Amino acid sequence: MLCALERYLLPLGVVLEGKMEELMQGGYFVYLLLPPCILVKQFVLRAWQDEAVLIADGSIFEIHGDEDAVPARHGVRICFAWEQENLLAEGLRRLGKVLANMLEPESCVKWSRCN
C-alpha cells in the first residue's frame, strides 16, 4: 500500500498524516491530506461517481471537542484492514486518477477553491 501511495498520490500533492515508516504499525487506517485547493467533499463524490471508489470524508471521524487532534477535515481516511493489497493499490491508483483530473486547470475552477 505504501508503494501505491508513493506512486499515485504523493506526486499530486497528497500529504500523509504521520511518518511513512510508522503508518502501518499498530493501526488500520491512514489519513491522506489533500492539496489545499481540493474540496474534500467534492473529491469523495468524484471518487465514487468517476471511479467507483468509496472513501470517507475525514471530518466524519472528528471527535466533538477535539477536532484539532487530527486534521481530518482536510483529507480522507483510508482503511487498509479489510482489503487485499492488490485491491488497495488499484483503489489508490483510481484515487490518483480522480485527483489528477480535479487538479487540471479547467476542472480546478469547478471542483476546488484554487481560484
Q: Looking at the structure, what is the overall shape?
A: globular
Strand order of the largest sheet: 1-2-4-3
Give the uncertain stretches in residue-range form: none
Question: Helical proportion?
Answer: 25-40%
Your description of this structure?
The protein has helices at 2-8, 40-51, 85-103, 105-111, and strands at residues 15-16, 29-33, 56-57, 75-79. It is of the alpha+beta class and 115 residues long.
Produce a short descriptive summary:
By secondary structure, this protein is α+β, with helices and mostly antiparallel strands. The protein has four helices and four strands.
Helices and strands in order, then pairings?
Layout (H helix, E strand, L loop, with lengths): L1 H7 L6 E2 L12 E5 L6 H12 L4 E2 L17 E5 L5 H19 L1 H7 L4
Helix pairs in contact: 1-3, 2-3
Spell out the key features of this protein:
single chain; 115 residues; alpha+beta; four-stranded antiparallel beta sheet; 39% helix; 12% strand
